[in-house]
Amino acid sequence: MASNRLACRDCHAVVEADEEICPICNSTSLTEDWSGYVSIAHPEKSEIGQEMEVTKPGSYALKVR
Ligand SMILES: [Zn+2]
């Protein structure tokens, strides 16, 4: 089954399909059109986390269109 989770266009957080507001940055700009799932547990120690300017641990999409 394809995942229909959503990703935030503003902070790239991946959220459940029934979410309407990003729990990380409170943006309502969520999209199904994303790819590359990455789980970041320690953003301050993660190169990807720093590159994406992630400040909170969580699940993020590498690419959001
Ligand atoms: Zn967000």
Automatic annotation (TrEMBL):
A GO molecular function term, named singly, is: zinc ion binding
Enumerate the Pfam families for this protein: Spt4
What residues bind Zn(2+), as annotated?
Answer: 8, 11, 22, 25
> Which Gene3D superfamilies does the entry mention?
2.20.28.90
Q: Where is the Spt4/RpoE2 zinc finger domain?
A: 5-65
Q: Which UniProt keywords apply?
A: DNA-directed RNA polymerase, Metal-binding, Transcription, Transcription regulation, Zinc
Cellular component (GO) terms are: DNA-directed RNA polymerase complex
One GO biological process from the UniProt record? Answer: regulation of DNA-templated transcription
Q: What role does this protein play? A: Stimulates transcription elongation.
Q: Which NCBIfam families match?
A: RNAP_arch_Epp
> Could you say which protein family the record assigns here?
Belongs to the archaeal Spt4 family.
Q: How does it assemble?
A: Heterodimer composed of Spt4 and Spt5.
UniProt protein name: Transcription elongation factor Spt4
Q: Which organism is it from?
A: Haladaptatus paucihalophilus DX253
